[in-house]
Design brief:
Blueprint lengths: L2 H27 L12 E11 L11 E8 L4 E9 L5 E12 L7 E11 L16 E13 L2 E8 L3 E9 L1
Length: 171
């Protein structure tokens, strides 16, 4: 790869990350005037495990995730997930999300879409997630779930790599 191509590639990735962060900030700034972006109605604590669609000798360590979400009354949320990635490296996912609840005939079911930044894929594994040029990569994670009372469960699609299964409780 030539120097110019490398420079252009890095410039494009920086522009994509800046655009994503601008959209997140714009959403929080356009919230109701009396509501702060960081306000929330309750916290939702989740724990879970993930599995890969295919196995690899490089996969190591526990497949355990711990996540804390701040849920707003308008079904927007923000949160932080802590986990060891597939290669045994401590990683974090900082995100915002939107949940769609299906009241009526599908009471308790929901879909969720989160978007954020993943940090922790380093060294020889940094290319295992797309756009990971500076140790931080953008991510979008769709989920489906069911919640009854304070308890819930979700299944999230981790790109083409695998599935995340979590259980949670309102705090």
């Amino acid at each position: 790869m030539t120097f110019v191509t490398h420079l252009l590639s890095n410039w494009i990735h920086v522009k994509i990350i800046r655009f994503f962060l601008s959209m997140v900030l714009l959403r929080s700034l356009t919230a109701q005037a009396e509501e702060h972006w960081y306000s929330y109605d309750y916290l939702y604590l989740q724990g879970g495990t993930y599995t890969h669609y295919t196995s690899s000798d490089n996969h190591e360590g526990p497949d355990i995730l711990l996540r804390l979400e701040a849920i707003k009354d308008n079904d927007w949320s923000y949160g932080l997930a802590l986990f060891d990635n597939s290669f045994g490296q401590f990683s974090q996912y900082l995100y915002v999300g939107k949940t769609w609840n299906y009241h009526g005939s599908f009471e308790g079911f929901h879909t969720k879409l989160t978007a954020g930044l993943i940090h922790g894929y380093r060294g020889e594994y940094q290319d295992k997630i797309p756009l990971n040029r500076f140790g931080i990569a953008p991510a979008i994670i769709p989920s489906v779930g069911y919640k009854i009372g304070r308890y819930g469960a979700d299944v999230s699609m981790l790109g083409f790599a695998g599935l995340l299964i979590t259980v949670g409780i309102d705090l």
